[in-house]
Design a protein that fits this description.
181 residues; 4 helices; 22% helix
């Protein structure tokens, strides 16, 4: 790892200090998932907080991620894995594959540039949404699941912990069965 990459990775960790690492257990994750009703458009959003997903101290592709399900009335509209990356240069991400080779629909959400004058560094943030069919989310709940993003200038893989996916599936099930407390 070059000094520049190490500095960028450390800066990324500093910048996302508000994102905690993914929960170790499903019960811990379940307690942090929110269900928000919007009476103005008759919708409900279920989502996890934004978590830092890392594969260890030497991870060169740390990302922040959260799961989100959107309902219109009582009908599920979509499930999305939101992925946020902070780097020293644009990745121009345009596609993603699960560890099983399945191509995941990628939506480009935001791009932003940030200058930190205290350390004289420019970082870029790219946020994407990966659309997940319900059956695929269930499959991801069976084990820690790797996904790889591909861009014009960068690519990398990250892990979605099964503890997070299982808890999210539980929350969706209780909402859909109207058994949430």
């Amino acid at each position: 790892m070059t000094k520049t990459n190490l500095l960028i990775t450390l800066t990324f960790l500093f910048l996302i200090g508000c994102a905690s690492t993914t929960p170790k257990s499903s019960s811990e994750a379940l307690s942090e998932i929110t269900v928000v009703n919007d009476k103005f458009d008759n919708s409900t959003t279920i989502e996890t907080p934004l978590y830092l997903s890392r594969k260890g101290f030497t991870d060169t592709f740390p990302v922040s991620l959260k799961l989100k399900a959107y309902y219109q009335g009582n009908e599920r509209q979509f499930i999305q894995l939101y992925v946020s990356m902070v780097r020293g240069d644009w990745g121009f991400y345009e596609r993603a594959n699960g560890e099983d080779g399945k191509n995941l629909e990628l939506l480009k959400i935001t791009k932003d540039v940030d200058y930190k004058s205290s350390i004289s560094m420019v970082t870029v943030q790219e946020d994407v949404g990966l659309m997940l069919p319900f059956e695929y989310l269930q499959k991801m709940g069976n084990k820690d699941f790797s996904i790889k993003l591909y861009g014009k200038k960068d690519s990398g893989d990250f892990v979605v912990p099964s503890s997070l996916t299982k808890a999210f599936l539980q929350k969706m099930e209780c909402f859909e069965n109207k058994t949430c407390t």
